[in-house]
Amino acid sequence: MAPSFNSPGQxxxxxxxxxxxxxxxxxxxxxxxxxVAKRVVLVDNEESDDGDYDTRVACDQCGSGERxxxxxxxxxxxxxxHMLCLRPIVxxxxxxxWFCPACSDDLDRPLKSFIQKKIIDFFRIQKxxxxxxxxxxxxxxxxxxxxxxxxxxxxxxxxxLPHVPSEDPTRRLVQLGSLAYALIAQNxxxxxxxxxMPGMAPRSANQAEFENxxxxxxxxxxxxxxxxxxxxxxxxxxxxxxxxxxxxxxxTVEADGPIKNMTLIAEYTGDxxxxxxxxxxxxxxxxxxxxxxxxxxxxxxxxxxxxxxxxFINGINNNSPExxxxxxxxxxxxxxxxxxxxxxxxxxxxIKGERLYxxxxxxxxxxxxHNFI
Length: 373
Description:
The protein is α+β, with helices and mostly antiparallel strands. It contains nine helices and 14 strands. A three-stranded antiparallel β-sheet has the order 6-13-12, with helices on one face. The longest helix has 17 residues. The radius of gyration is 29 Å and the shape is globular.
């Protein structure tokens, strides 16, 4: 019970000594707290204690306690999650500590701000005069060569369009900064192209002629578009995309401006390796590059050490109507100068703020390793 500050005969006048004690005593002592604390009686439940702790944990996402061998326990809050219920899906039990999306350090980690010089150095941007001010997008690159031939009624083939960077140089720096932050957080080195590292598949193994059933050849006009986009990337003129972090999906990519249908979004880059070497790999962003007649010669792109923004574009299952509505990107494997490459192309108009998704179940497109793990 709190002490009274009114002494007999003094009415409402405060006791100076008690007022001083009150100022000194900011918190109640543990003895006072224990006097009013409720008692808790622990009841032994033999039915719940006869099994392992893991058998009593339910997935915080789906609410089911089945498939205990697939439940991951957060090392911070002890909540359980099925590996298939997480986004992105966890294909293998992590080694070491694991934290659920709610306890992930990335949620509380502020977005780093990169100065212009750091961004230029990080992406090895080639300067052409004053980079950000003078290397702006020119509408002239949209113009295609006019053919002087006579008009022929043929079925029109849909051409791949080059991406249109944001006109504001400051906004382009923000977009590149978001990608740089995501790559650094994942310990990934930025790469403009496929890389061939010692101990992995050599470049001579990446031959489109090895494809089982053949591979479609990128047309001359689309090859010119690809080369144009590669040159624009190296000048810092990236597509209007920004990398964000989602507690359920992890790092994901959003459109930072309107993107037209058939626009070339990115080329999938990373280390090239044989699929047989990666069958037990826990990387969730590998992409099939070559499905050879001889399965031992099939190749996959591994962006776990080197990669670009394509590594953060999520693949989803399009079996449900809701998922089919989200799909706005397709991954297509092409033969370019005799070598295989994977291109990400918009399948419809994309508005600003819309997230990018591709279908990882389509056989006619590129195939992530979800199909062979």
